[in-house]
Specification:
Helix 1 packs antiparallel against helix 8, helix 6 runs parallel beside helix 9 and helix 7 runs parallel beside helix 9. The chain contains 10 helices and no strands. The protein is about 80% helix and about 0% strand. By secondary structure, it is mainly alpha-helical. This is Bidirectional sugar transporter SWEET. Its main location: membrane. Forms homooligomers and/or heterooligomers. Pfam families: MtN3_slv.
Length: about 250
């Protein structure tokens, strides 16, 4: 009974998770249309790629017991394709400085993944130890992935605009975390339950921030607008100080 319920939850979780992976398609359609990445950060997509790659390896029979985590493996494999596509588009339209940063970060996570795969395959000789090691790494990567949207939350609070944090992205993120938390609980898998519980919390935070700032009617402020306002404030302060001098 529990196995059947877990399978159903896994299928629902996979569908919701694929939708979450596909959500940035709208963002990157805009990037392609404007031929610019604007204020968008590539960090969430890099961390999502690292997390998807790690959990792909976790769901593979070398680490898991047979195909017990087939839903997880299949979903994350699709996620890897999505994230690689988004990152390639970002690199194509990003300015030179951002391109260097993204290429460096992607190279770094691929190198780390190779170390993880090699170490768990050849240095750890029991499935329990492999699951413990890769699962622990997966917790770290998932935590980093779920903390990445907090960058968008900071941007929303800074610009007072929800432009950089779409509602459907936050909503699907919360739903995905909820489904994989339940999937982990049913399978008594702490490596899936722990990070996705944190994902639930960050998803709730995103929705709360969205509800607060979606009512702001003023146009979104860009980074340049904020810097200009800050410079004007400093200049005005200096003029007032000079005016007060005898």
């Amino acid at each position: 009974m529990v196995t059947s319920v877990r399978l159903i939850v896994g299928i629902i979780g996979s569908v919701v998770c694929v939708l979450l992976y596909a959500v940035p398609v709208l963002t990157f359609k805009r990037v392609i249309k404007e031929a610019s990445v604007g204020e968008f950060s590539c960090l969430p997509y890099i961390l999502a790629l690292f997390s998807a790659l790690t959990w792909c390896w976790y769901g593979f029979p070398v680490v898991s017991n047979g195909w017990e985590n087939l839903s997880l493996f299949g979903t994350c494999a699709i996620g890897v394709l999505f994230e690689f596509s988004f990152i390639i588009i970002y690199i194509w339209f990003a300015p030179k400085e951002k391109k260097k940063f993204v290429v460096l970060m992607v190279s770094m996570i691929l190198a780390i993944l190779c170390i993880i795969v090699s170490f768990s395959s050849f240095m750890l000789h029991t499935q329990h130890m492999r699951k413990l090691f890769v699962g622990s790494v997966g917790i770290v990567t998932s935590m980093s992935m779920y903390s990445a949207p907090l960058v968008a939350v900071k941007q929303v609070m800074k610009t007072k605009s929800v432009e950089f944090m779409p509602l459907y992205l936050s909503l699907f993120s919360l739903l995905t975390s909820l489904m994989w938390t339940l999937y982990g609980v049913l399978g008594r898998d702490p490596y899936l339950t722990a990070p996705n519980s944190v994902g639930c919390l960050t998803g709730i935070v995103q929705l709360v921030v969205y509800c607060i700032y979606c009512r702001c009617k003023e146009p979104p402020k860009t980074h340049d607008d904020i810097e200009l306002a800050r410079d004007l404030e400093v200049a005005t302060s200096r003029e007032d100080t000079n005016a007060c001098k005898p």
